[in-house]
Amino acid sequence: MSLRVIIADDSRVMRQIVVRTLRQAGYGDWEVLEAGTGAEALEMALAQQPDLVLTDWNMPEMTGIDLLRRLTASGVDIPLGFVTSEGSPQMRELAEAEGALFLIAKPFTPEVFRDTIDPFLA
Amino acid sequence: MSTTTPDDVLLVAQDLFAAMVDGEPGTLERWPGPPADLADPVNAWVDAGGAQGVRTVLATDRTTAVALARSLLALGPDEPVEAADIRDVLGELVNVVSGNLKGMTPGTGLLGLPVVVLGPPAVDGALLRESHLRWRGSRLVISTWNLGTRGTTR
User: Fold this and answer.
1) CB–CB of A108 and B111 under 8 A?
2) Of A74, A95, B61, B130, most Cβ neighbours within 10 A?
3) Does B25 contact A at CB distance below 8 Å?
């Protein structure tokens, strides 16, 4: 299944690693759009209506959780998952409570991506 | 975060390097000799919990920082490494280390954004832990500092 995904992270190297990991996880045919801030990701998501948003949590201008809240408030139904450096139970609970599909903690492997994302593609 | 140990730091860093830097385990280990100052240092840090919180610092020398940037960005040997690349890569590495250490100690507050300085750090606080590591023959130092006790630098 080919999807269109937005990867939001203020780190260029992390966006590159996420793209590489998606490819290694078997999602090499996905169309990838990149955003460097939460605000940029919000604008891009509303305009492009992607199938999935993968976002960092801690970013300048707009955090990932605020991005999720803004998407929810705008009434669009765009699935969103976090790829972030902190995967504490509190963060996971907050992400789930706000409607996130999942939270992948860095560092990650292609296997983690596949095991986490595949169930939502079924 | 003061309850984390040098073993926690090593395990977190080893997981990070195995998954995202080298793609294989076994490239990062404890530094086998005595600690020594870094020549031409590069320092990256992230604060957790704001001004009274804990700072995690990743330090290495400029040559190793360039090698890390080249590895993570998958650059060829002849491709240039810009200062922005070093800032991005070192900042992201310390961000992941800090986030993982913070996750082991609930209640340490929000994680800040990474700061990278191509030079010595300006840390005003008490040293909590310092781990000297070896990556492909080069030295990396990961330290944590209590910012709530300013004026007590080592």
Assistant:
1) no
2) A95
3) no
